[in-house]
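Hey, quick one: can you model this chain's 3D structure?
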Amino acid sequence: MHQDYKTRLAALSDKLTDAVLEEADPESWAGGNKRIGELTKQERGDRYWDKKNAAASLTLLIKVHSLIGMQTRGGTPSDNPGQDDEAFALGQQVSKAEREAAAIIERLQKGKK
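Sure thing. Here's the predicted structure for all 113 residues.
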């Protein structure tokens, strides 16, 4: 990989880290510091997407870090199967957490009706 790509990936990683830190902050989600019972239906929906977006940004950041790590070690994904396994496992954990969060939100919304 050319040094230019490595530099650009590092810059992208910095930007994504900033985005993840901002998006993952609960105070930046719809409804701000309101308790879940005080949120409107619109705020709950927006809050769900805020969380989903933060999780997706974090997943993207992890993948960029994985790519940087593979290039730093001079390997390819097939040369570093442990790294792929770790990234896959982490992706599964993120997906599981998203499903669990969606189920909790759905239960809460059904309870409010």
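One thing worth noting: Residues 3-112 form one domain.
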